[in-house]
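If you are new to this repository, start here. Below is one unmodified record pulled from the training split, so you can see the exact layout before writing a loader.
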Amino acid sequence: MWDSIWPYLAAILPTIIVALLFYFLMKRILEGDRRERLAQSQWESEQSKKPKDNS
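And here is the target side for that same chain:
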């Protein structure tokens, strides 16, 4: 049985692995971007609340 299935698995397995790596990599990139945008907006709101120094 494995003799007939193995060629198909050997052909599709690398594609599946690369697709999973791509998925997790893109997920991490998008999560990092979301956190960076949140931190940037928080910093900007803190900066806008500070009084301006006119000296």
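Two things worth knowing about this chain: The radius of gyration is 24 Å. The helical segments are 2-49.
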